[in-house]
């Protein structure tokens, strides 16, 4: 009889435990919440506690009020623990977290035909293709990575396949300097990594047609459009004057296609400002740069200097134009270019022209100036698709002109 009673007690205990387990687990399973939902529930409960505390305070019930305050402190600790807690993100969560990653790109496609130089084939080709990812980071920072695709060191006799490589990989970090420490008000963004040259990217905006012909300094290999190093960019505010933008860099000096081979570093700075702006007439800008190749930490490399000034004009309805003058160690040159829409609202076709003259060695006994010309027409299908039919000539020193016909296209996405 005793054994039966003991067995019955055990069964009751097991059943009771099972019921208690179900009572505890089942509600949790049915009401499972994400970490964010739990945080919101705790925040809502804190509001209830605050309301009750005020109510009992008005009634003069200090004992109950102190009890609620103690409960609020315990609830705040629970919220703090939830803030530390991290949950495994779902596919939707990952997508939401990366929703501010911006993907963009550019494709440059062209038909090329040499008119007087038979070594230039009649061919279609991709001259460049870019894929860029930008991501906003905490603290207002921004990271960018750009993949570039082109034919590295192309040769007509030995055609190269298209190679992909990194063109840009850097981070922009806002630098907040207290106003009390600023003698002159200014802003600053630090740049770290494989980044823009301080001049070429800015100057190209005054030409805006690198897909037809590269920017002057870039085209003549005065400097590379991107390099490894450090940079700082921002604006300086002066009394009674327009804001002055600046961009200073400390770079390896070899460009983005090669690894560093010596200890010398290039140092440069660009300054630019808006001289005139009118919504109907347009905008006039001016800028200039100073650059010293192998200018610091020089261990025997030849130090050369370059400087340029540029004046540009832009009208959203009619087009852009610029003139640049370049002077440096044993080099000088100038470039004049632009495009104009005679009647953009009726026919979105612009006339494009450019003239470059560059002397790579001013000490040479005989002239070896490189002269490039471009004339053509550009059709703007949309802001994302443009076409250009153009004729370009190139002459070096006393050599004969090389004439090449192009049908250029660019697609932005």
Task: Indicate the topology.
Blueprint: H1 2-30, H2 35-59, H3 62-84, H4 91-97, E1 101-114, E2 123-136, E3 142-150, E4 163-175, E5 188-196, H5 200-207, H6 216-219, E6 226-236, E7 244-251, E8 265-278, E9 282-296, E10 304-315, E11 319-328, E12 331-340, E13 349-359, E14 370-380, E15 385-396, E16 402-412
Antiparallel strand pairs: 1-2, 1-16, 2-3, 3-4, 4-5, 5-6, 6-7, 7-8, 8-9, 9-10, 10-11, 11-12, 12-13, 13-14, 14-15, 15-16
Helix pairs in contact: 2-3
Description:
This protein is 23% helix and 45% strand. The protein has 413 residues and is of the alpha+beta class. It folds into 2 domains: 2-92; 93-412, Porin (Beta Barrel), CATH 2.40.160.10. The protein has a 16-stranded antiparallel barrel with strand order 1-2-3-4-5-6-7-8-9-10-11-12-13-14-15-16. A hairpin with an 8-residue loop joins strand 12 (331-340) and strand 13 (349-359). Helix 2 (35-59) runs antiparallel to helix 3. The radius of gyration is 33 Å and the shape is elongated.
Second rung of CATH, namely the architecture of the largest domain:
Beta Barrel
The low-confidence runs, each spanning 5 or more residues with pLDDT under 50, are 1-32
Q: Please, how many domains?
A: 2
Shape: elongated
CATH homologous superfamily of the largest domain, by name?
Answer: Porin
The secondary-structure class comes to: alpha+beta
State Rg: 33 Å
Q: Tell me the fraction of residues in β-strands, as a range.
A: 35-45%
**Which CATH C-level class of the largest domain is it?**
Mainly Beta
Helix content: 10-25%
Total DSSP E strands: 16
Largest beta-sheet characterization: 16 strands, antiparallel, barrel
Oligomer: single chain
In DSSP terms (H or I, runs of 4 or more residues), the helix count works out at 6
SSE succession = HHHHEEEEEHHEEEEEEEEEEE
- Could you give the distance between the termini? 86 Å
